[in-house]
Design brief:
The protein is of the alpha+beta class. It is globular. The two termini are 30 Å apart.
């Protein structure tokens, strides 16, 4: 739910894809951010979300997608869900009942990149992963410059926080930038 709008999405996926990735070795985070969704999932997910962001300002669209990821996925750490650290590709995140910070960051980055066309980077804090989005409009909050562009923090795990808000407890950390 966002601004009194309810967004409901059905994204089909192939269970064989999920089972294959269950045996896939863990990679560095940038690979998860770069990965594409399977075609059937990509088409359904993007087609259902696109009408909700069309016509919105850049900030409104980024916040709508942020709220979608923040509130449509239940949170649980990988230790709780899998008993080990398990980075997920965006397609896997849609399958499992829970998602942690890096899973949400990967899905949010995917949606922003494919629906809005904004550049996204990952933010690797000590014990947490979030994202930052390159923006062209004046958006208030926690921002930084990178390669001549203004990036605004967008944390898919900081429930109900708008873009520009760094999660409580991480404000004093300087995150490593994950480029992809």
């Amino acid at each position: 739910k966002y601004n009194q709008r309810t967004i409901e999405v059905n994204a089909p996926y192939n269970l064989d894809y999920i089972e294959y990735l269950d045996h896939y070795p863990q990679l560095s985070m940038d690979h998860y951010f770069k990965a594409e969704l399977p075609q059937v999932t990509r088409q359904a997910l993007l087609a259902q979300l696109r009408p909700h962001v069309e016509g919105l300002s850049e900030g409104q669209a980024l916040n709508l997608l942020l709220r979608f990821v923040q509130t449509s996925l239940l949170y649980q750490t990988d230790q709780q869900q899998f008993n080990f650290e398990n980075y997920l590709f965006a397609g896997e995140t849609l399958h499992y009942p829970y998602a942690d910070c890096e899973d949400r960051a990967v899905l949010y980055a995917y949606l922003v990149k494919h629906l809005l066309g904004n550049q996204v980077v990952g933010l690797q804090y000590d014990g947490h992963i979030a994202t930052a989005v390159a923006v062209t409009s004046d958006i208030k909050g926690d921002t930084f410059s990178l390669e001549g562009k203004t990036f605004v923090v967008a944390d898919p795990t900081f429930i109900n926080a708008n873009i520009g808000r760094t999660m409580t407890g991480f404000e004093t950390q300087s995150p490593e930038i994950i480029r992809f």
